[in-house]
Amino acid sequence: MPGNRIKLKFTLNEKDVTIECPPGRRLIDIIRLDFKLTGTKEGCGKGECGSCVILMNGNTVNSCIIPAFRLADANIVTIEGLARVKGIPDIRSLFAEIQPLQCGYCASGVQMVLAALLLQNPKPDEREIREALSGNICFCSAYSGLLKSALHVVKHSKKRRYAKRISG
Amino acid sequence: MWLSILKRGDMRRESQVKVFRPKSLSGLLRLYGKNPESLIFSGGTRIIPLLTKGKNRRINFPEKVIYLGNIGEMFRISRSQRFLDMGACLPISRILSIGRHIIPRVVYEALHSIGNPSIRNLATIGGNICSPTPFNDSLSALNVVDARLELRSQSGTRWIPAGQFIKFNPGEVLTRIRIPLEEWDYQVFRKAGGNQSPTTISFAGTARFAKGILESFHFSIGGVNVKVFRNRDLEAQFEGSKLPVSVREIEAMLSGLDENLGSASTLPNARYRKETALRLFRWFIDNVNQKSIEIL
Lengths: 168, 296
Ligand SMILES: Cc1cc2nc3c(=O)[nH]c(=O)nc-3n(C[C@H](O)[C@H](O)[C@H](O)COP(=O)(O)OP(=O)(O)OC[C@H]3O[C@@H](n4cnc5c(N)ncnc54)[C@H](O)[C@@H]3O)c2cc1C
Description:
By secondary structure, chain A is α+β, with helices and mostly antiparallel strands. Chain A has helices spanning 27-34, 91-98, 107-120, 126-132, 143-167; strands at residues 6-12, 15-21, 53-56, 59-62, 75-77. Strand 2 of chain A pairs parallel with strand 1 of chain B.
């Protein structure tokens, strides 16, 4: 079986895509190197830091520990496609209003987690937010700012969702 | 959109991996029977960090991999009056979403302690059970509620207790977990040490009271040795005790546990593990006493 490759169809940021690649290629490499969607960051490469979190079929997953063969028919959303997902506010601009982070490397992972949380639970309390973010490491340790902006996102998300619906 | 990903140079470097993706249990058993050297891949959260190597962080899969994620039968959950049956491929987050009121609390807490929400979306219960210490935090809780594991191969099906160390026969996989649904007055799971820390100790305990007496008392400890600890004789010594359990009885129990844990752990930091286990037991029995005072 020299140089085995598989052909896969999946949805990436609401576009149907087809790829052919080795079955063990990591999803993060497919996203960043093959599709040039570099908003998703790589940190530890072991599923521990949460920098590479994306949405797979509506759930947050660490893209560094997903091999290509799991992608068949999956629905993948990266930070670049987040604004297009129905039912969630513009998390990126809400985040920018507070500017909680220092280097920002963890931001996309954090925003993906908040998006998934808001999809499942439109009014999470602080405990639920902390629990949701428990897999996201901030490399600058700016956790209090992070929590502050997460609370800001949640507080304003309803209004923004409404505004988005009217304007959209 | 069509994208051809690999350049020729990369191709030569890629391992020659063949991934099988069976769609039925019978297909899986046939395939695994023919290729027993294959790596079974469920959620991959244990396997991938182990296999990811090198500057490019490539996953170095062995030649043959069997992916369980398309086998519908292994994702089923069913509940009868006496049991909760869970397919081995159910992601932990899916099991948790059934809710605390259906899953025994001690099992719920153990599953909830695993990793973080994103890991639990991928990690499966079967993968957890089949992982070695300290990557199998669910096992002490499953052991304490007398869960049983269904193992299947082409040559048949067998059931083993969750606490028994699994020695798979060639071509055999874990397919189902059966949890008896019993009422407990107190059930608790506690983990000392962080996620995946090599010295994590997990403790699971359940107790039932009747007329001022400790009617039923179970506990199981993970991480003290390669096999999860449970000793029914020790449990039986406590059963029938008047509540709250007296200091004298607790001391006797602690020394019994001390003896039973022995010094035979093959894991590093054996002394720390044993001391932590004893402390967790002490904490458990204090809480049983406290709870019994509240209830009785
Ligand atoms: C960041 C992080 C944090 C973690 N935290 C914890 C933690 O707190 N507690 C904990 O216990 N673990 C933890 N883990 C380890 C791991 O996530 C869990 O053990 C998980 O449940 C493994 O399940 P899986 O489906 O991903 O297994 P896989 O990685 O797919 O498989 C694990 C092993 O089981 C075998 N296997 C899987 N399914 C079957 C089956 N049905 N039949 C036979 N063999 C099978 C595989 O061949 C492999 O050897 C963590 C991992 C990461 C990356």
